[in-house]
Specification:
Length: 380
């Protein structure tokens, strides 16, 4: 790690290791190239501590007793002052609420990283309403707001964020040395999906389409990589697959450490999400591997994937459109190799982890320049 790096604390939930956590992990590895050292403060115990790749970053644990355990905010403020962190970077509604208090007491700027819209992040309407109300406060109190897509920038503006506080920093992933494997004539077409599986990921729609493809005589299987948000949802999906007669043609791989090798198991990457996607990291990783894409038109996806150039876009929840897109690829009516080649070039040019870190570092630079003129924090 370069000498004289500026310390920054990232405040994260840490319960899972999914897209947002992957962003945090990659930034910890890349930001030292731009003069910043990243450590983490975790508000929950969970998978991040075990799954993260960048283990050089310090990990501080502040498990909350409830969403409104504000004593944690004061403890984090003390940590900021003790370790000399110059910025606090938050990544969730919970983190933004606690981080806003901690940053105020510690006298440092707070960045709020907007990964997905709070008003449609879960299937629980009451929780979405509560989170959206809290996020309005967070958006107005943050020193800077980093949106991972232009759609989220519009979302932040519609919820009262100041225009001069908002920047769009696209997610990015490392370049991939392993390319897609060629489909062998006479062998099944392998569809791939990778996610933290929960209802908004659209897995039910994909299973319905898989069953229809097989009824139409298409030799197709599904490789599904990722853990489930809850055991109850995993059981629900298993029952649905069994009812559709798909149990023998799906490989449930669980959480995979080696993403590149998992992507090599697929011929086509499918993102059937219904909502709640900013710039999906798994989509970028599939592009880096040169996989042809079939994805839904949700939030930031159409800004990443150009329809019939890098992949095929369909309406979320529309079984017929998803079925048609996959039929066209299976029958070679669409040149899937051309889609994959274009997707790989686009990821390298627009959505690398280096460019993501560069954009974040530029915001940090601006905030530190501005903070020299602000008053010190409050006394604890």
């Amino acid at each position: 790690m370069p000498e004289n790096t500026i310390p920054v604390l990232h405040l994260i939930n840490a319960q899972f290791y999914a897209g947002a956590e992957r962003v945090q992990d990659l930034l910890a590895g890349r930001l030292p190239d731009f003069g910043y050292r990243i450590d983490f403060a975790c508000l929950k115990e969970g998978e991040f501590a075990v799954r993260r790749r960048n283990t050089s970053a310090a990990l501080h644990s502040f498990p909350m007793k409830s969403r409104f355990d504000f004593a944690v905010a004061l403890a984090i403020a003390r940590l900021i002052r003790k370790n000399g962190y110059r910025l606090l970077h938050t990544h969730s509604v919970r983190g933004g609420l606690i981080g806003g208090i901690a940053a105020r007491f510690a006298g440092v700027p707070m960045v709020y990283h907007l990964h997905s819209p709070a008003d449609s992040d879960t299937e629980a309407a009451a929780r979405n309403i509560r989170n959206a109300l809290i996020e309005r406060f967070v958006l107005r109190s943050a020193s800077r707001i980093m949106c991972v897509s232009s759609s989220l920038e519009h979302y932040a503006l519609s919820r009262g964020a100041k225009p001069d506080c908002i920047s769009t920093i696209w997610n990015g992933v490392p370049l991939c040395a392993l390319l897609r494997r060629a489909r062998v004539v006479g062998k099944p077409l392998v569809l791939g999906v990778m996610a933290l599986f929960r209802p908004r990921k659209g897995l039910e729609v994909l299973l319905d389409v898989l069953a229809q493809l097989r009824k139409l005589g298409v030799d197709v299987t599904l490789y599904a990589a990722g853990s489930f948000e809850t055991p109850a949802y995993q059981e629900e999906i298993a029952r649905r697959a069994d009812q559709l007669g798909l149990s023998g043609c799906i490989e449930w791989a669980g959480f995979v450490e080696d993403i590149s090798s998992a992507l090599r198991r697929m011929h086509v990457f499918v993102l059937p999400s219904l909502y709640g996607e900013g710039t999906p990291m798994v989509l970028l990783e599939a592009m880096a591997a040169g996989l042809p894409l079939v994805a839904t038109r949700v939030e930031g996806v159409p800004s990443v994937v150009r329809d019939h150039i890098d992949g095929v876009l369909v309406r979320p929840g529309n079984v017929d459109e998803l079925l048609r897109a996959l039929q066209d690829i299976a029958s070679a009516d669409v040149d899937s190799d051309a889609l994959g080649d274009s997707a790989r070039v686009r990821q390298a040019e627009r959505f690398s982890d280096l460019e993501m870190a560069r954009g974040v570092a530029e915001i940090y630079d601006e905030l530190l320049d501005e903070s020299r003129m602000t008053v010190p924090g409050l006394t604890l």
